[in-house]
Specification:
about 200 residues; mainly alpha; 434 Repressor (Amino-terminal Domain); 2 domains; two-stranded antiparallel sheet; about 55% helix
Length: about 200
């Protein structure tokens, strides 16, 4: 049976892993983080190794000082054991569906250019008339990635050799991160070749 001390140590290590992952995603060193939130590199190191436990005040400094996204902030709060003020919202919830409908009615329908609302895996949640007309030229594509992988899409992009790199990077990230990306080929582009760097 785990002691309270062992559980605390395990929780601190979990927070340390989360903080390290966020710091590396931001491309920052421990020294840079310490300078940004006005603490010492030693304290950041202790947080990452689990030798120190985060306080709610320290979490606030990390979130505000580093300009973290809601997802990054949620990861730190969830790992800290404090109540998470950034709960994940499911896209099937009635409140969010109402918001999406409102966006479609009040914003998208008046926009003269193709406009899309997508989820984190770039699936289409809402589109406007110009977007639907544009997508019709590519067949039934469920998301942006299928669109990017469509040979017809690549043929219509004048500077495809230059632009394909950014599409490739996004597709590769989704294929690694999400079950929704399992059907995507991270090595494929509409030209059938991996883009050059």
């Amino acid at each position: 049976m785990q002691t309270a001390k062992a559980r605390t140590a395990k929780a601190q290590a979990h927070f340390g892993d989360a903080l390290r992952a966020v710091r590396r995603a931001l491309g920052m060193t421990q020294e840079a983080v310490a300078h940004t939130i006005d603490t010492t590199q030693r304290h950041v190191s202790f947080l990452e190794t689990g030798r120190s436990a985060p306080t709610r005040a320290m979490l606030g400094r990390l979130v505000a000082g580093l300009g973290l996204t809601a997802a990054q902030s949620a990861a730190l709060f969830a790992a800290s054991g404090f109540r998470n003020p950034y709960p994940a919202r499911v896209l099937e919830g009635p409140a969010l569906q109402t918001t999406l409908d409102l966006m479609a009615q009040q914003v998208l329908r008046h926009w003269p250019f193709p406009a899309f609302v997508v989820d984190r895996d770039w699936n289409f949640l809402r589109t406007n008339g110009p977007a639907r007309r544009m997508l019709a030229a590519f067949g039934a594509v469920p998301n942006m990635h299928a669109l990017f992988l469509s040979p017809a899409f690549g043929e219509r992009v004048v500077n495809w050799e230059q632009a394909s790199g950014s599409f490739y990077t996004r597709i590769h990230a989704v294929a690694r991160r999400s079950p929704a990306g399992a059907g995507l080929s991270p090595r494929a582009t509409p030209t059938g070749r991996s883009p050059t760097a």
